[in-house]
Write the structure tokens for this entry.
Amino acid sequence: MTIQLYDLAGQDDDCRFSPHCWRVKMALAHKGLAFEALPWRFTEKDAIAESGQGQVPVLRDGDRLVHESWQIADYLDEAYPERPPLFEGPQARAHALMIRHWAQRSLHPAVVQVIMPELFEALHEKDKPYFRESREALFGKTLEAFAGDRDEKLANLGKALAPLRDTVKLQPYLGGEAPSFADFIVFGAFQWARAVCPVALVAEDDPVHAWRGRLMEAYDGLAAKAKGFPV
Ligand SMILES: N[C@@H](CCC(=O)N[C@@H](CS)C(=O)NCC(=O)O)C(=O)O
């Protein structure tokens, strides 16, 4: 049976914007595993209730149900050891943990402040009240106040990207010569933005742009072919 992934979608079925689901889609492609990405909305908690929680990604592989992108990466490496690894050994996994936390604490907050107005507009109508209420409670302010001035937010993002920029100036991927799960963690944030927002996060001459381009074209252009803005 083909692997199935519950994948966050917007108003349009083909608007797939979850950064965490993108990590998993890139991971599946890296391992050469075919999958079906099922559209899921924030308020469709019943569809994933079997996983015991309310967030995607949730992956179904035969009778195994695995949730949470990091746990899914571990599962895929364990279940398919003969295929290209997501973590080239325990040390690579240990280093990727730092990337995971950097993405969660620095990168995602910087990206979402840039894309919030368009992200909200892209949501399915039935998700909008839930999203507004849950995020405004989380941020302690309205979505509009959270978004604030876009130029300022883009400048903040540019600064947050400095460690990534300095790294991909020296090597093609965070994984070195080949992409690794650390790349997919960071790349997911760029697919999040591209799916919903026409604003370029980085200039075309930024080394981050070239790194992102390599990942967009990887795996037969999985990410490039996904619906999104030409940024
Ligand atoms: N740590 C989790 C985070 C997953 C997550 O935040 N998923 C979001 C979509 S990107 C979600 O499903 N949110 C549901 C909600 O807010 O109710 C992972 O890496 O998989």
In short: The beta strands are 3-8, 35-40, 58-61, 64-67.
